[in-house]
Amino acid sequence: MCGIVGYVGGRQAYPILIKGLTRLEYRGYDSAGVALIGDSGKLVIYKTKGKVKDLEAVTADKDISGSIGIAHTRWATHGEPSDINSHPHYSENHNLALIHNGIIENYLSLKTELTRKGYHFQSQTDTEVVIQLIQYMMDSRSVSLEEAVPLALNLVVGAYALVIMDKDQPDKLIAARKGSPLIIGVGEDEYFVGSDASPIIEYTHKVVYLGEEQIAYIKRGEDLRITDLRNEEHTARISELEMSLSEIEKGGFPHFMLKEIFEQPRTLKASMQGRLHPELGEVKLSGVIDNRERLLGAKRIIICACGTSWHAGLIGKYMIEEFTRKPVEVEYASEFRYRRPVIFPTDVVIAISQSGETADTLAAVKLAREAGAFLFGICNVVGSSIARATDTGCYTHIGPEIGVASTKAFTAQVTTLFLLALSLAEQLGTVTDERRAQLVNELQRIPEKIEKILQHDGEIADIAKIFTYTRNFLYLGRGYNYPVALEGALKLKEISYIHAEGYPAAEMKHGPIALIDEEMPVVVIAPKRGNYEKILSNIQEVKARKGRIISVVTEGDTDVKALSDWSFEIPDSEECFEPILSIIPLQLLAYHIAIAKGRNVDQPRNLAKSVTVE
Ligand code: G6P
User: How many CA within 13 A on the CB side of residue 176?
Assistant: First the structure.
């Protein structure tokens, strides 16, 4: 969840670290810090509660020289956001500095023990324990830093991606990971470290993805040396980064979120590319073709995910059940992993995760693996932990998603789930060729239909201003559009901090109807396919209680519109594709309400993009 950057080479480290932090700020942003070994030979740390620009203010009159450094943006877990709790942290003798992403679960017992041995702790963080423990290993066993790191990490329980600097080795960084991602960029006589590729991409496309429980010794002028916690040597495998710098810049948009909403016509095409074959009326997914027997033989499918990915999973359930007639269960990964779920070796578990790093989803995958289930991953980040921990899968291929509130990942996940459902149905013979061809042709038209909705951005922005001071929202939908109600409500609460709830429209009578009065806007997703008459009755029920209706309707609708105070139109489509269209005006509505309220939409308070702690 925190952002990590490191540099060692021939250039000045500070500008590279600050630029890297800015690119990573979407991961965590309550504090920022940097450690450098300056020209004076001193190991200095500057850190502060706040954003990267606050850190720049702190360093304005400081010595920021040096060609080695580490830097961090924090998303607090242990200890409130404060200057002291910010990373980097020093070891007892101030010779070592460390930055960390993850959680050290046994930090309290280690801290107690180290305190007893005379080590002094400055912060309330779990992180500080690691660097103190490393120094303790050096002090008590008279070993080098290189030997002390695995010794200490073997005593640590939890998850970490970390980077260490040593005052006495101004040309070397040591990095390690367990459960949290870490990437090393390999340049000409220089190395970069990042918790993802965004701080590295500007300088080199050559990267090494550090493996689970591996430690990298990164010394300028030498090849990378990689070992693991058992001190076994590993070869550093260099991969080529596929992303480009423009993908992580705003490209003329005021916010990443808006850019990503507007990217959706293109990103959906990318998710379909090479997989959708309208000329044949077919879908081809190599992950399905190569694992035909195992997938087709599944007695049951379980989808595990968190947040927006879980909402996409709900739509996936509707699609897979409709087209393949196989039973599908959708689970919050965090619940699934801890409630001793019944998993059969004949089950297929689909893990959906934009980042591919969400700790609960990864743990659910590991649990399903132990039970012998077959694992299918739907991830966006290539080479991510979940992508690697699954047997096969399908990348969404939408480029980096930077806005904390997920938008383009959602529509891509739904599209990918459709491709999976249809390709299974094709093999199972549960959908006729004619119907399949219709669906394939319609999916191909979805990007241009999204373009059409996006043209109404200005109107949506005008309507959004009406709700600047609204305190509660209710979102209702039925069938395929029920998960859209959940996702629409999530978008609004995430970035505007307005309380919003999503409900299946018919369930409104069992509780939320008590809340409806003239103050309460109710967003009703009511396109014309599936349950239209039923949702019309639900709208009448809201109207009868003076609720204000904002509806999402199919172009040409008259009945729902007549009852609505405001309406957003979407082009007609197959029922299963309605969610991909109906979510677009709701993404824009949430964005514009948040802007009208003056919120920081790309970095909403308390949230993080990639939740690598449980
Ligand atoms: C966080 C993000 C959400 C995301 C969820 C799951 O809460 O803020 O946008 O939907 O994690 O993330 P994943 O990467 O697994 O899809």
Answer: 27
